[in-house]
Each structure stands twice: as structure tokens, then as C-alpha cells.
From TrEMBL:
It comes from Devosia equisanguinis. The chain holds residues 272 to 557 of 642 of the full protein. GO terms for molecular function: ATP binding; ATP hydrolysis activity; metal ion binding; P-type zinc transporter activity. Belongs to the cation transport ATPase (P-type) (TC 3.A.3) family. Type IB subfamily. One of its GO terms (cellular component) is plasma membrane. This is P-type Zn(2+) transporter. The keyword Hydrolase applies.
Length: 286
């Protein structure tokens, strides 16, 4: 049977706001020496706001926002929600949409009466026949490009605030001698700013979901015990592969399903405290 100390630990973790799906995960958490954090929705609120609307020549801001909001109408992604909110604040309503598809870590495709609309990052534009677009620009923020059948309509800049508890949590993890890393699908410019804000030095940007997964595999192969904390559809494979996967409470259903531990809220301090608890529980048993 499960040792009483483990059952007690699971109970205490639940009171602290972390639901642990089995005793083995608490044990593994007690051995963790590396923590990998996702950015959007994990270190940041994931409630980004559009800060700039930058249409291409001959396109109005409303036209750009209408195309973007139409394509994002069925999106679960925080960037999609930010675009829809921005369109609404301009009094722009989306058009009827068909054939929505999502390429995690890159962007989406959907069609209105005029044809296909592509919304996403620079790689997504290139993949869909739009010429090269610059990944970094004058404004620090995530640049989301909008195109229609190979033609760039423009882009919007989206800004997402860092969670205040994140800095404290990173400090606490470091204090426990844990190696803290940031992996994100977003651009290097945005990733560097967030990492600098939090004092994280190990950063990798521009990663696809399969690349996040590969990074986790490589860390495990080097003999380390790695916890991955994420929230998105794009994090689900990495969460499932990590020694222990942790989903944010506000995370997508698939992230919460694949994780071994689900935070009740989104407070990363709760996670850091749970690691501390897991270590103490391990000491009681061994
Ligand atoms: P993170 O790893 O930081 O959580 P994601 O992997 O979810 O970020 O997204 C990576 C990038 O892919 C985003 O920064 C954005 O450029 C693009 N992207 C993903 N989904 C969408 C979407 N629905 N609309 C627009 N862009 C998107
Ligand atoms: Mg995320």
C-alpha cells in the first residue's frame, strides 16, 4: 500500500492548491533537480492584450482586425482571445467562418466567404506562402501576422504581463538548488525579456510542441529528474513526457489531462511549495 507519509503529503498538497494524481508523482517531485517552465499562460497571465495594430499598405486597421477576428473566432489560444477583444473594442464583428484548423505553436487557418485566412507567427507565414516577415520589430511583444492567400494584410503586437508570483517562485526553486529553464514557442525577443524579468538564464525560444518534447527527453537522458509546468495544447506532449508534469489551473483540458499534478489556481508559489513538501515527505520515508 501507499505509505502514510505519502497519503499525508498528497492531502497537504491539496490543501496548498496542488492536486496530485498519485503517490508516485509526489515521490518523483521530491527528486526533481530541473524545472522547465512554459511562458505564455504559465509565467505570464496568458491574458495578452493587443498593444498595436499595424496594417499593411492599402489595408485599414478595421479590415485587418476583421480578418484576424474571423479566423480566431473558434480559437482557444490566448492570442486569439486578445485579437477578438481588440476587434470588439473597435466595433468590428467577425464574419461567418468555416474550416478552422490549429497548428500548435504556429498559428491557425480558417476561411470566410473570400477564402483562407492565416494568423500566426513568422514561420506560419512562410509555411503558407507569404514571403518572409520580420520576427522582431520596434515594439517588444508577440507579433501576430495576418494573411489572406499569400498576401500579408499586416500584423498586431500583443503584450502579456508576467505573473507577480512567478519571480518569487523561481527564486524559491533556485534556493532549493533546482535548475530553472524557460521553453517557449514565442520569439527570442519576447522570451529574453520575460526571462530577464524573472532572472532565468536558460532560455529557448521558437520551439514547436515536438521540440519542447525533445528538450524534455534530452534533459531526462542526461540523468536528471525534470518537472515541466505548462498550460497549453502545445505543452501536452512535454507534460506527458517529463518525469512529472504540472498543469496550471487555467490550462487547457488536454494539458490538465496529461499532467500528473494540476494546480488549483495559477499561483506558481504553490508549485514551489509543493516541491518543498515533496522533498520533506521523501526524507520521512527514506
Ligand atoms: P508558448 O510556448 O509561449 O506557450 P505557443 O507555443 O502557444 O507559446 O505559441 C507560439 C507562437 O505561435 C505564438 O507566440 C504565436 O506567434 C503563434 N500562435 C500560436 N497559436 C496562435 C493563434 N491561435 N493565433 C495566432 N498566433 C498563434
Ligand atoms: Mg503556454
Amino acid at each position: 500500500g501507499t505509505p502514510l507519509a505519502i497519503l499525508g503529503g498528497i492531502g497537504r498538497a491539496a490543501q496548498m492548491g496542488a492536486i496530485i494524481k498519485g503517490g508516485v508523482h509526489l515521490e518523483t517531485l521530491g527528486k526533481v533537480d530541473t524545472v522547465v517552465l512554459d511562458k505564455t499562460g504559465t509565467l505570464t497571465f496568458g491574458r495578452p492584450e493587443v498593444s498595436h495594430v499595424l496594417p499593411a499598405e492599402g489595408i485599414t486597421a478595421d479590415e485587418l482586425l476583421r480578418a484576424a477576428a474571423t479566423a480566431e473566432a473558434l480559437s482557444e489560444h490566448p492570442l486569439g482571445k486578445a485579437i477578438i477583444a481588440e476587434a470588439a473594442s473597435h466595433g468590428v464583428t467577425p464574419l461567418p467562418v468555416s474550416g478552422f484548423s490549429y497548428e500548435p505553436g504556429r498559428g491557425i487557418k480558417a476561411s470566410d466567404a473570400e477564402g483562407a485566412i492565416y494568423v500566426g507567427n513568422a514561420a506560419w507565414m512562410t509555411a503558407n506562402g507569404v514571403g518572409a516577415v520580420p520576427e522582431e520589430g520596434a515594439f517588444v511583444g508577440t507579433r501576430v501576422f495576418i494573411a489572406r492567400e499569400g498576401r500579408l494584410l499586416g500584423h498586431v503586437v500583443v503584450e502579456d504581463k508576467v505573473r507577480p508570483e512567478a519571480r518569487q517562485a523561481v527564486e524559491k526553486l533556485r534556493g532549493m538548488n533546482i535548475d530553472v529553464q524557460l521553453l517557449t514557442g514565442d520569439t527570442a525577443q519576447v522570451a529574453r525579456r520575460v526571462a530577464a524579468d524573472l532572472g532565468i538564464t536558460a532560455v529557448e525560444a521558437g520551439l514547436l510542441p515536438t521540440e519542447k518534447l525533445q528538450r524534455i527527453k534530452a534533459i531526462k537522458a542526461s540523468g536528471r529528474t525534470v518537472a515541466m509546468v505548462g498550460d497549453g495544447v502545445n505543452d501536452a506532449p512535454a507534460l506527458a513526457t517529463a518525469s512529472v508534469g504540472i498543469a496550471m489551473g487555467s490550462g487547457t483540458e488536454v494539458a490538465r489531462e496529461k499532467a500528473d499534478i494540476v494546480l488549483l489556481g495559477n499561483d506558481l508559489m504553490r508549485f514551489a511549495e509543493t516541491v518543498h513538501l515533496a522533498r520533506r515527505t521523501r526524507k520521512i520515508i527514506w
